[in-house]
Amino acid sequence: MLSGAVFTALADATRRQIFELVAASPRSVADLADRVTVSRPAVSQHLRVLKDARLVSDRADGTRRVYALDDRGLRAARGYLERFWDRALHDFKQVAEAAARDERNRR
Fold first, then answer.
1. Which CATH topology does 2-80 take?
2. Which of 31, 71, 72, 104 is surrounded by the fewest CB atoms within 10 Å?
3. Which of 34, 3, 18 is nearest to 69 (CA)?
4. For residue range 36-45, what is the model confidence (pLDDT) as tens digits?
5. How confident is the model at residue 74 (pLDDT cuts 50, 70, 90)?
6. Residue 25, Cβ neighbours under 10 Å: how many?
7. Cα 93 from chain centroid (whole Å)
8. What letter does residue 92 receive in the DSSP assignment?
9. Residue 36 phi, psi (nearest 5)
């Protein structure tokens, strides 16, 4: 399940920070390492997890790799969460309609 990989990838605070930086604008490993408190090799490992979860993609730019947002992972996670949101809205509607019926019956 791809959404599980997304949630696992974003469970780590450093990975979330890296993801948010990449989501704001494409960035190289060196740029990311300058903005977080972990080493370049650690940034690369975090990016690998994010890439496996399809949250980021990479492209060659000369001798460096540039990472950008890949929305496939986000779409999978959103689809997963929307099932619960749809169910919650349905349940809320049922409760509201029942309360309205009860109010009408008391009159």
1. Arc Repressor Mutant, subunit A (1.10.10)
2. 104
3. 18
4. 999 999 999 9
5. confident
6. 10
7. 28
8. H
9. -120, 170
